[in-house]
Amino acid sequence: LSWRERLRIAVDAAQGLEYLHKGCKPPIIHRDVKTSNILLSHSFEAKIADFGLSKAFLTDAHTHVSTQAVAGTPGYVDPEYHSTYRLTEKSDVYSFGIVLLELVTGLPAVLKLLETGHILQWVRQGLAQGTVADVVDPRLKQQQQQCDMSSVKRVADLALNCTALNSNERPTMTQVVMQLKESLQLEIVNESSTRPYGGGLDINHSGTTATTSISLTELSGPSSR
Questions:
Q1: CATH number 1.10.510.10 is the correct assignment for the domain at 3-199+209-214
Q2: Which residue, 102, 107, 151, is CA-closest to 3?
Q3: Domain residue spans of the chain
Q4: Which residue numbers delimit the Protein kinase domain (predicted)?
Q5: Which of 42, 51, 120, 190 places its Cα 20 to 30 Å from the Cα of 74?
């Protein structure tokens, strides 16, 4: 997947979560946002799926849902929700931040073979010691159409903001959508300036069904780190 395609997927998924939080009455918390719960059509339109763990607020005025047990997928669960059992919109924001890190790096949320153990710690460490080029999926750097690193950096920073330990410091999904659209526009401008004769995107899609979920194989290929 090219960087532009990844951004389009991110924007679509973010808009889906924004609708759950702001468009539904009462608001709904998905509670299991992860790459495998983002389905892609043949045209790479992304949809949020699997609402088996979702929770709705009792009324529009409520800001959280108290649960008796923590549910979700390891690696994506909001630490604040894990410790307080209080589910908020920002719980989904945290999980989506992990998804963004996967789109940037091509790595899974849980890194079993690395000392850091989790993608968030790995990215934080990589950015502290280097630049976004040190954590970006190497496949993006190898593509003929070079992606705009300033766009990648904006998304990496957004992902880190989404995964702030204090939920009050995280953006809303509305803010996430706006920032992702800005990053997508940067990439579109970059493509226009480096591809003077235009041309379509090279989409390598081998799926045979109407929808498929995001795959780390699709993101990084067999040589992913």
A1: yes
A2: 151
A3: 3-199+209-214
A4: 1-184
A5: 42
pLDDT in tens, 59-101: 776 778 888 899 999 999 999 999 999 999 999 999 999 999 9
User: In angstroms, rounded to a whole number, what is the distance separating the alpha carbons of residues 37 and 83?
Assistant: 24
Longest dimension (CA), the chain: 58
Q: 157-207, pLDDT tens digit by residue?
A: 999 999 999 999 999 999 999 999 999 999 999 888 776 544 443 333 333
- The pLDDT of residue 190: 86
SS (H, E, C) the chain: CCHHHHHHHHHHHHHHHHHHHHHCCCCEECCCCCHHHEEEECCCCEEECCCCCCEECCCCCCCCEECCCCCCCCCCCCHHHHHHCEECHHHHHHHHHHHHHHHHHCCCCECCCCCCCEHHHHHHHHHHHCCHHHCCCHHHHHCCCCCCHHHHHHHHHHHHHHCCCCHHHCCCHHHHHHHHHHHHHHHHHHHHHHCCCCCCCCCCCCCCCCEEECCHHHHHCCCCC
Burial code (b: 16+ CB inside 10 Å, e: under 16) for 115-131 equals eeebbbebbbebbeeee
Q: Global pTM?
A: 0.85
